[in-house]
Amino acid sequence: MRILLVEDDDRVAAALRPALRRHGMSITRLSGGRDVVAHLGDVDVVLLDLGLPDVDGVDVCRTIRETCDVPIIIVSARGEVDDRILGLHSGADDYLVKPYDVGELVARVEAVYRRRRAAQPGAMVPELIEVDGVALDLARHTVVVDGESVTLSRKEFQVLALLATAGGAVCTRNRIVAEVWGRSWPGANRTLDVHVATLRTKLRRPELVQTVRGVGYRLGLPAAGE
User: Fold this and answer.
1) Can you tell me the distance from the alpha carbon of 135 to that of 143, in angstroms, rounded to the nearest whole number?
2) Computed over its alpha carbons, how large is the radius of gyration of the chain?
């Protein structure tokens, strides 16, 4: 996922870069808002501070929204209700007040990105997904491996379905836990690892669910021509 970070505070930007990269996100950073439009071409989500040195962030938000429909999350120290309302009315998809938890920021980034992709024309998810001899029926909640029905628990199926509908993209641990279990807790990562290990065994394809170290999991799609 490609992030445009519009933030004038070098310390904030320096702290965010490695944190976001650990979750599989690439970062382009601008310290002002004047040149934002020129950098929107290959951006998936914009993180926008309001206290910029050259242009007020609310005006930048309006300009971005007039230009394209890229998801915008305002990340600002302006925390009054009126500030949040103004930001959302100016075109932002979400608003997070500083200081914030990086895990929450990542979850919000993934949420607005997911909603925007789902809203795009032609973004319908197929009911049947087939990968390397594994047929996943999202409507019936069934899995068939090499023509043989395989029984998965509800959580195992949800994990597999999330990875399958991502089309080979990496799903972070935070995202999987949030979407499948609806909450996080101290042992969440261990629980997820156990479910993935069980999936690999039941599907008889250990390489199908791949670990992306320090980030999460992805579905190992066969190379073209295989």
Assistant:
1) 6
2) 20
Pairing of strands 148-150, 142-145: antiparallel
Would strands 26-30 and 94-97 be described as parallel, antiparallel, or unpaired? unpaired
pLDDT (tens digit, 9 = 90+) per residue, 180-226? Answer: 887 778 888 999 999 999 999 999 988 999 998 888 899 887 654 44
Q: What is the 3-state secondary structure (H, E, C) of the chain?
A: CEEEEECCCHHHHHHHHHHHHCCCCEEEEECCCCCCHHHCCCCCEEEECCCCCCCCHHHHHHHHHHHCCCCEEEEECCCCHHHHHHHHHCCCCEEEECCCCHHHHHHHHHHHHHHHHHHCCCCCCCCEEEECCEEEECCCCEEEECCEEECCCHHHHHHHHHHHHCCCCCEEHHHHHHHHHCCCCCCHHHHHHHHHHHHHHHHCCCCCEEEECCCEEEECCCCCCC
Residue with tokens 């190992």: 220
Helix axes 173-181, 102-119, angle to 10 degrees: 70
Pairing of strands 2-6, 45-48: parallel
Four-point Cα dihedral 85, 87, 93, 95, nearest 10: -80
CB atoms within 10 A of CB 58: 22
pLDDT at 30: 96
